[in-house]
Automatic annotation (TrEMBL):
GO molecular function per UniProt: methyltransferase cap1 activity; nucleic acid binding
InterPro entries (UniProt xref): mRNA_Cap_2O-Ribose_MeTrfase, RNA_MeTrfase_FtsJ_dom, SAM-dependent_MTases_sf
Reactions the enzyme catalyzes: a 5'-end (N(7)-methyl 5'-triphosphoguanosine)-ribonucleoside in mRNA + S-adenosyl-L-methionine = a 5'-end (N(7)-methyl 5'-triphosphoguanosine)-(2'-O-methyl-ribonucleoside) in mRNA + S-adenosyl-L-homocysteine + H(+)
Protein name as catalogued: Cap-specific mRNA (nucleoside-2'-O-)-methyltransferase 1
Amino acid sequence: MGSLYNEDDPEYKQTRLLFDIPPPSFETVPPILKDNHTNYFAPRDNRKKFKSSHSNTLPYHRPKDPPSSPPAPQSHLQKHGDSRSSYKSLLKSICFSFSIDQESAQSLLTQYITIMNIISINSKTIEINDSLFPIPLHERIQRLKARMDTAPRGEYMLARAKSNPLALVNFSGSYSQSFILFASLDSEFSISNRLISLNHPLIIAELCTQKPTGLSTYLKSTLIKSGVTFDLIFEDLNKHEAPKNSHNPCSLVNILDDNKDFITAYDFWDHETSKCDLESKSLTANLSVDFVVADLSYTTSCNPIEDEISIYKNLIKTLTFCLTTLKPSGSILLLVEGTNTNLSAQILYIFSLIFSEISVIKPLASDSITYQRFLYCKDLIISKESRIDILNLLLSKISKDFFEKDGPIYTILNPETFLSSPNFVKFVYSSNLQIGLLNQQYLEDILKFLDQKNKPPKFNQKEIAEYCKTLWDLHQDS
């Protein structure tokens, strides 16, 4: 087949990304792209200092160690690399965090609750916001994907494997992708150790869109090894009606499958509504859960806008579950797709007001073809009164048809509410930009391998796989 990636193609060599809001700093650009400017242009940051105000002087946190991306060809991490210690920098995640002090967050939340409103919008009006993610970069990524669609399936999969330094980590297929994702994340951010340090017994909840995933499997395995007492519960986010057949524990099927994880069978939205007495403005259920995990990244669409809409609906459910069930100081870890539209950004902003810190993290083990990333929200800080106020709005105004595939789309906050916070916009833009640049580089690598079929992998994948298996403790059965 013809050349898919052409160094002389002006569409790829000379197209420059001109941003209305420039990248916060050239330091956010991966080293590999600093050395190769053919696909990225970083204008000087000539923005004026933000005027002092309560909402825009809130702290914006970069990670302590600047994130890094896969190194350029011919580096010490390639096929003939001899320094295993250097893999540590290769495997470092993209991570951006944002926090607001508790007093300011509560003040802002109290203010915004009075103007929150459930408003129906036309799905056709939902689009990528250039203030949150540069549209030229998004369009370039879509063009690169379109070029790959012309490649034979076998050649595409081989080129993708050659481009991925972690291609051999799960070569045997012993672990689910989400299990490996959590293992890689935990090795860097010690999420399970944080849980182990809490008072026991713990209650862990997984919100499921299909079935229990490797996120809860990994957590279960890790906590058992550490001798932690805990309960693991599962909630079906997609359940809209009670099951027609009752669960029969004496049936042959259930006897043979006695150890399976049992997902709750009641209607999710009805159950959340039952936890809150809207008339007396009180919670009828105990705040019992310490930690929530959910893989919300599964979608059936190839359209990033439709994907965000689908995930947004589950984020609304997740927000509701946190307000009805999560303990004060509880945390959540969500695997999501992009946060490139106002829909996703508004939920992100609400999370920033009810948790002490939110982080967007993209491990190298995640899918570099998509906008997949983790959203880690630590330490719920919302007051009991604000819980009830937001729940009253969500449960009384959002009908079940909202959660149907073609149901209406509702917004909660006017976009100007969060877009007027420069530090929040900077946080979202920076994380989206960094992930987008990583996607672009990975896609271009795949196209180059499609054109040069005999070219060997960029990295010593076997050595990296052994390093990761040891680092992530993947040598033992899950």
